Sequence to fold (70 residues):
Amino acid sequence: MVEDDLALVKEAAAREGRPESEYFREAFHLVALRTRRWGEDWDIPELDFGHPVTAEEIDRAVKDGVAGAE
Fold:
């Protein structure tokens, strides 16, 4: 499996004209981000609409937002 992955990296590097080392640096960076932990709780606001929000309400809000952006 590792050999297959390495072959894919080599193919991508040749195709895109990038050094293989860039792919490895990018992979290490992604692993570092994925394993990062924060010591404090995040301050994410909690929204209260007075009732559970349904999938239909979310779909309608997204469609309205997309239509308004066009």
